[in-house]
Structure formats: structure tokens, C-alpha cells
């Protein structure tokens, strides 16, 4: 009798970048329509190695380097999507998405609507975003609010390896265009047991990170970890903080947000984007519209500043919200 | 199909140290001036990498091996002309006149590196690709409209020339007869992507044809040829004869930045071939053969350069770290009420 085959572990320890790589490999494996492309994604496997090994495994037709032209990358993706493929484009840094904004604003989100459903663009655009790792100018931008403002596109921003994998697979399988922002700070700083094989996490469903009765902190992406630390500190002072990780900002899971705010009566919204006109303001507005009766204090936003993200290493941490700033906001809404 | 074919390539001093265009050979003092400029910026490149390893410099994109392409173009300008360099063009900015201390500060991520000197028209290194090309057209058109003879020189890489804004700028410049000199440094790579993956075109100077402007292809490791082509283009622009695109054919022998690992995408055979075409060594050999240069000259230049750079680094060492509220400075001429409030908030936090 031979020994029983070793049972495959159901999970594997992964960083977020490894989880993204895994999701891309699974998508490429499952669906021949999936194509991965962008600057440096092929031979080099991406500047963050998110596409490492994919070209060797799936060939240069499915995984390829493009010319350095973001409008070209996104615009070509639109055409590929219209014509039956599932393009998964990478923009090297979210701050370099700007040359492609014409395509995004003029076309990406409009095709289904402007053809009364005849055509649609099942495209995913992945882009690393955010600060905390001392990058040069324009590499640390958080432009998610710009995208979230465009009708017809979805915006997904994971905060854990498990979520990154499941949400990316859901995004790739989604029939509509999805922007998928990956916090650079999280690529390698968190590791966890990630389920093996294919699974999806539905878009538009927030995750309650920690439960609490006194304050709701609503955030996503690179700020989840920061907020969780602030919540831990507050808990030590007897304040119960419920941290909600939105996971997708459009569609927004208003139900989870409002249920929590109705329970706690206080809300702090945390992002690392500039203050004015950010997505945090949208969340605050939704709370004001739907749950004003439940509020015991005004909604407080913790954000970056109305200035470009500073590339000055020694003061970068001043711009990007840290746990202490979130903790002060929690205190502020408690003291109101 | 070779990417860097020598057809149509302007050369004065070829890689074997032979003068192939004696008619274009400048006088001895120009030759030594060109050499000194290359040696000076090479020193910066080498020092920057060392400073980075010591933790005294941030991410730095080296330009070593491209000194001829950078110095040869920037030296064709006067301080009245505009220079729009990319992150790769520290050498060009230094040759144009940007103080070494400012440059060190820039790559140390200090706001002092953003304080562009009043007596020059140089803009901070452009990090987003190709976005500076339309600015150069604007600067050039503005100079022309204001009746000056000043020109604008903008840099881009082979990769950057794939961006739409590169093409828009060339078209605008032609249509508006802008006094612009477009430098396209074809160094073979856009991070990991070789030029042949970037484009099917094998002669990037020909892109100028599509916009009705002159395109020149020059040996980017031959500073005599580069300087000649750039000076001609600048002169043409000053005579109101419009823009020129200059492709300098060179090679990025160094990594993309100090944190890049080129072994992931290339073998070093071709790099070694290009190292043999080193622009600094090439001109040194020629100058020595002509008895225009010797060890004594070299030693004197070396100590001059070392002294200049050490003094600049010492000066940059004295620049204080920015204060937290500096992140809010210079967003508008007058801070908005929102920025004022955010400044207050920051001050409270810093003091908390
Ligand atoms: C708009 C934009 N997209 C992407 C990047 C990221 N990036 C930085 S350098 C680079 C390659 C540039 O290659 P090339 O233009 O040939 O210039 P080189 O670095 O070789 O001098 C890329 C893709 C960027 N800085 N800006």
C-alpha cells in the first residue's frame, strides 16, 4: 500500500504582492480572454514584481510589455474589452495614470451606457498608489476620488493579501471596468494565510475590521492598518472603535457604513488623499444625508493636505495620516 | 534590423578615436571645454551613487555613459535659454549651470533642491514622462512672442517618445515655428523595455518628418558631434527657423536607478560593447594623441572637480531639514482659507 497523498494545504502565507500575482495567474489560467499588459510587466515582472513569472508561464501574447504611453495602454484596453478580451492593464504608479485620464473620462465608463448595453468594457486597470515608502515626486498620489467620480467605473482598494486576491479575481470577472488601486506600503509589509486556488470577494461589500460601540472609523487601503492601530490605542482607553474597511469605494457599501454609524453615533473617515473634494467627503456626505439623526458628533475627516504629496523624505510622515492623528480625531468626536 | 544602426549617424570622432568629419572639428579650447564638462558631470554621477550607498542621497537615476549626450546638448545654451530636464538629466542641468549644491539637495529630497536659481531658466527634473515637452513649446513660443532670441531645450528618452504628449509637442512646435530644441536621448532602454519593444521605428530622428521639422541623428557618445548638432539647432531656432529634433544614439550602461537590477532584463554583453565606446575615454584619448591633454592636466582637473563637489556636498549638509508646515508652502501665492486652517492644524499637532 502506498502512503496517502499529502493533503494540499488550503492556505499559503503570502504578501499582498504575491497574492496579486497569484490572482493574475489564476485568472490567466482559467480564462484565455484575460490579457495582462503594461510598462515593464512582461520580462521584468513589473517594478513591484506583481506580474513576476507570468510572461514565462503564459507567453508574450497574453502577458506583454507595452510602449510607455498610459493613454495608449488604457485606450487599447478599451478596444480589447469591446472586442471580447478581458484586459488587465497595469499603470506603473497611480500618479502616472494622469496621461490616460482622457480615455478614462471620455470612454472607459461610458461604453455600456452610450451603446444602450450593446458594448461593454470588462477591463481592470491596476495601479500602485499611496505613500509611506519614500518615493520620488508624483509616485505617492492617491487619485482614487478622481476615478470614483467617473460614472460607469468601479474602484477597488484592498488592504490585505486575502482581500487583494479575492477582489482582484472578482474585478477581472466583473463585466464592467474596474480600477484596482494597490497601496504600495502594503505590498510587502503584511503577510497572511491566503486561501489557495480560485475564490472571489464580491465588489461593494465592506469588511468590519474591528468591532466597537463608540466610534466608527471608515477607511480603505493603506489607511486600514493605520486606523486599526489607532483603534487599538483607543480601546486601551476604554473607547470601542469599529473600523470599517470599505474594500470598494464605488460601489460604496452604504449599508454597512450606516449600520455602524447608527450603532456608534460617531464617525471618523480616514484617507491619505488631499482634503478638499476627496472620497472621504463623499462618505461624510452620505452619513450626513442618511444618518444625521444618529450622530452624536460631527463627522471628522483625517486626510492628507491640500498640497501635492511631498517627496521630502523627512516630512513625508507629516502629510500621510498616522495612528496618532487618527487617535486624536477619535478623541475629538468622543469629546464633542 | 538593428536598433542603433549607424546609417545617417552624425559623427565627428568615431569610437576608434578617428576624426571622420574634420570639417566639423572645433578649435582646441572648445575640445578641452567639452572634455572638462564631461569629466565634471561624470564625477557627480559616480559620487551620487556612493552617497546613495552611504544613505546620504535618495533614489538617483544615474546617467554615466551618457555624458556626451547631456553636456554636449546643454552647453549649446546660454543662461537666457530654457532647460527642461528629466530625472535622468542631472548631467545636463549641471552642464547648463545648475549649482551642484542644489542638485545634491534635490536628490536628497530636500526642498532646497527645488529652489531654482534666479539667474537661470532651468526647471526641476521632470518625474512624469513626456509632460515637459509641451512646456518647452510654451516657453519657446513665449520667448518668440516677447521678441527674444531665446530658445527652449527639452529632454526625453526613447521610451518617453512613445507618449502622446511628445508627438503633440513636436506638432505644435512645427505648426507654431517655436524656437525649440528637442533632445531625444535614445539610450536603448525604458526601465526593462528595449527600444525594439517600445517601437517598430529604428530611426527615431525620422519622427520629425511627420511634423515637418528637421530631425538629426547623432552619435550620442561623441560629444563633438552632439555639440555641433545642438549648436546648429539652437542657432536655427535663434534665427526663427523653428524647432529641431535631435536623437542622440547612446546607451544606458548603468541601472535605471540605484535601486534597479538590470540583470532581470538584460545580459551585460551589449553593455560591455557600449562601455568600450565611452564618451569620456574617447575624447580623452583623442586629446592626448593631439597633445592637448596630459597627466598634469588630468590631475589638476581632478582636484578642481573633487574640491568643487566636496564643497557643494558640505554646503548641502548645512541645509536644514524642512519643517513640517513646509508641505503646505507654495501651493498658491496666497494660502487659501483651507490651507491656512490646515497649517494651524499641523502646527497644533506638531506642538501636541
Ligand atoms: C507618465 C509616466 N509613466 C511612467 C513612469 C515610470 N517610469 C519612470 S522612468 C520610465 C522609463 C523611461 O524610459 P525612457 O523614456 O527611455 O528614459 P530613460 O530612463 O531611459 O532615460 C518609466 C516607465 C513615469 N515616470 N511617468
TrEMBL record, chain A:
Residue span, Transketolase-like pyrimidine-binding domain: 14-189
SMART domains: Transket_pyr
Pfam families from the UniProt entry: Transket_pyr (PF02779), Transketolase_C (PF02780)
Keywords: Oxidoreductase, Pyruvate, Thiamine pyrophosphate
SUPFAM superfamilies linked to this entry: Thiamin diphosphate-binding fold (THDP-binding), TK C-terminal domain-like
Cofactor or coenzyme needed: thiamine diphosphate
Protein EC: 1.2.4.1
Top EC class for this record: oxidoreductase
Keyword Oxidoreductase attributed: yes
Gene Ontology MF terms: pyruvate dehydrogenase (acetyl-transferring) activity
Gene3D superfamilies (UniProt xref): 3.40.50.920, 3.40.50.970
Keyword Transcription regulation attached: no
Assembly and binders: Heterotetramer of two alpha and two beta chains. Directly associated with ODBA in the E1 complex.
Protein name: Pyruvate dehydrogenase (Acetyl-transferring)
Classification of source organism: Bacteria, Thermotogati, Deinococcota, Deinococci, Deinococcales
From TrEMBL, chain B:
Matching SUPFAM superfamilies: Thiamin diphosphate-binding fold (THDP-binding)
Dehydrogenase E1 component domain mapped to chain residues: 36-324
Catalytic activity: N(6)-[(R)-lipoyl]-L-lysyl-[protein] + pyruvate + H(+) = N(6)-[(R)-S(8)-acetyldihydrolipoyl]-L-lysyl-[protein] + CO2
GO MF annotations in UniProt: pyruvate dehydrogenase (acetyl-transferring) activity
Subunit description: Heterodimer of an alpha and a beta chain.
PANTHER family named among the record's database cross-references: 2-OXOISOVALERATE DEHYDROGENASE SUBUNIT ALPHA, MITOCHONDRIAL
Name of protein: Pyruvate dehydrogenase E1 component subunit alpha
